[in-house]
């Protein structure tokens, strides 16, 4: 049975760090979809056109992996509608869904973490987007939790 492993949470909680510390070594050959990493490999996070191009490529890869029954992992804020559709689609196609939700106490912690990341050369996100995504992400977690076969929730405050 193919597996769709999700690392979700608002911007800044440490999704990539959790992925690297608990998952990567045992699954380093698994396909990974992370738009931020795709952008960083070929350019700058400040290039909106590149962000759009990589997001479109990620959409294609998700569909391809699901249709071809290829296990993969995806990093997401879980704040949009497409991620919910992708989880439903993968479930319908027989995927085992693992949700790793990395949470923070409040959106202010996320904003501060993103500022620290930017000061170290990482990608930024406007505060208003972090605020919105924080609550949308939690609401969407509530909506998809029943679709998941395994759920791990981390408080990384």
Content of β-strand = 15-25%
Q: What is the helix/strand order?
A: EHHEHHEHEHHE
- In CATH, the architecture is 3-Layer(aba) Sandwich
Q: How does the overall form come out from the CA principal axes? A: globular
CATH topology name, in short, is: Rossmann fold
- Radius of gyration over C-alpha positions, nearest whole angstrom: 15 Å
CATH superfamily, by name, is P-loop containing nucleotide triphosphate hydrolases
Please give the order of strands in the largest beta sheet: 2-3-1-4-5
Strand tally: 5
SSE-based structural type: alpha/beta
Helix content: 40-55%
- The total count of helices amounts to 7
Mean pLDDT metric: 91
Straight-line N-to-C gap? 34 Å
Protein name: ATPase
InterPro entries: P-loop_NTPase
Features:
single chain, 157 residues, alpha/beta, Rossmann fold, 7 helices, 5 strands
Topology:
Blueprint (H helix, E strand, L loop, with lengths): L2 E6 L6 H8 L1 H4 L3 E3 L1 H8 L5 H20 L4 E5 L5 H11 L3 E8 L3 H13 L7 H18 L5 E6 L2
Parallel strand pairs: 1-3, 1-4, 2-3, 4-5
């Amino acid at each position: 049975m193919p597996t769709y492993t999700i690392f979700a949470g608002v911007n800044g909680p440490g999704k990539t760090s959790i992925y690297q510390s608990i998952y990567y070594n045992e699954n380093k050959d698994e396909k990974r979809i992370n738009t931020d990493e795709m952008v960083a490999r070929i350019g700058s996070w400040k290039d909106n056109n590149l962000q759009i191009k990589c997001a479109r490529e990620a959409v294609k890869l998700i569909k391809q992996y699901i249709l071809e029954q290829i296990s993969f992992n995806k990093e997401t804020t879980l704040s949009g509608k497409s991620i919910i559709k992708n989880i439903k689609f993968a479930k319908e196609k027989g995927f085992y869904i693992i949700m790793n939700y990395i949470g923070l106490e409040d959106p202010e912690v996320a904003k501060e973490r993103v500022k620290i990341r930017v000061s170290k050369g990482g990608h930024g996100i406007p505060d208003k987007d972090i605020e919105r995504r924080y609550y949308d992400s939690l609401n969407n977690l509530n909506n998809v939790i029943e679709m998941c076969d395994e759920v791990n929730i981390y408080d990384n405050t």
